[in-house]
Design brief:
about 290 residues, UDP-N-acetylmuramoyl-L-alanine:D-glutamate ligase, nine-stranded mixed β-sheet, four-stranded mixed β-sheet, 15 strands
Length: about 290
């Protein structure tokens, strides 16, 4: 099976305790590597500039960049100031928009980091694909005079979206509502699965049921990319099994396994065996309620 991913590869400057580590990042990278580890073919629709020095590193990991990915504009670059589980995000440079070419992939992940995927492209894939997971973060992001990223209220057409992944602030800026009400509003607007991640608390709304899971307490080293790993694991599991409950357990298991590595950057992309073990354990702990 093959999954198409529309998003920028990025250069992430990760600052923690006064130390800065430069690493490749972005949903294209984290989602792509997770999907590859799960045995999927990966079709990247992304852009990087001449300053992207990690091409060989990610290709060694099995994620080649198509020739059309290369631009003369510098790669999208973020500074991530990490303090425990919290972080401030700054945009330092922005590459060209993603160019979408028609695809026969089995499923799609659209996860822009800063509006690099046109809404017209989102609409085209929404209307034509059988599976689309949307992480809308990049459609909501704005930047202040210092380069700091903040969120702003944004209207998106999410009808016919198979799954949408949001955190509390993203859900609020999409709906003006909080928690359960926000999830119900996103479902009413057409999302089949609403995936709501609030740090360690994960909730999924599908049909008339709300499922809840919790990632165990642990020391957090770096959360960068964990949401992307979660999205890719959900998409790949659902495409293989068509089982919503197992897919959310697999996604949470993947996020847990990534955090358990205590690694920085791409090295936190988890092994399928660790994901499977976590997912099987979590499957017996799922709580649900009728809505």
């Amino acid at each position: 099976m093959e999954i198409a991913i529309l998003s920028h590869c990025t250069i992430d400057e990760i600052s923690r305790n006064g130390n800065v580590v430069e690493t490749p990042g972005g949903p294209a990278t984290y989602c792509g590597l997770t999907a590859k580890k799960m045995g999927f073919g990966v079709e990247l629709h992304t852009k990087v500039g001449p300053d992207f020095k990690f091409k060989q590193d990610i290709e060694i990991l099995g994620l080649p960049l198509p020739e059309r990915s290369f631009s003369n504009t510098p790669t999208t670059r973020f500074l991530l100031d990490i303090r425990g589980a919290e972080r401030e995000l700054y945009l330092k440079s922005m590459c060209d928009p993603v160019e979408y070419h028609s695809s026969d992939a089995d499923g799609f992940i659209i996860s822009p980091v800063f509006n690099e995927v046109a809404e017209e492209t989102l609409d085209e894939i929404r209307e034509s694909s059988n599976f689309l997971l949307l992480d809308p973060q990049g459609y909501l992001r704005r930047v202040d005079n210092s380069g700091r990223i903040f969120l702003d209220r944004t209207l998106l057409d999410i009808s016919k979206v198979t799954a949408i992944k949001t955190d509390p602030e993203e859900a609020f800026h999409l709906t003006g509502l909080r928690e359960r009400d926000a999830m119900l509003a996103l479902q009413k607007r057409g999302a089949k699965h609403v995936l709501y991640t609030n740090k360690q608390e994960i909730t999924m709304l599908v049909k008339d049921r709300m499922y809840s899971l919790r990632i165990p307490d642990m020391t957090i080293s770096d959360t960068t990319g964990v949401g992307d790993i979660f999205c890719s694991a959900f998409a790949c599991s659902y495409l293989k099994e068509r089982d919503s409950l197992w897919a959310i357990c697999f996604a949470v298991g993947a996020a847990q396994a990534a955090l358990e590595t205590k690694s920085i950057g791409l090295s936190k992309t988890p092994h399928p065996g660790a994901i499977q073990q976590n997912a099987a354990y979590l499957y017996n702990l799922v709580k649900f309620s009728e809505v």
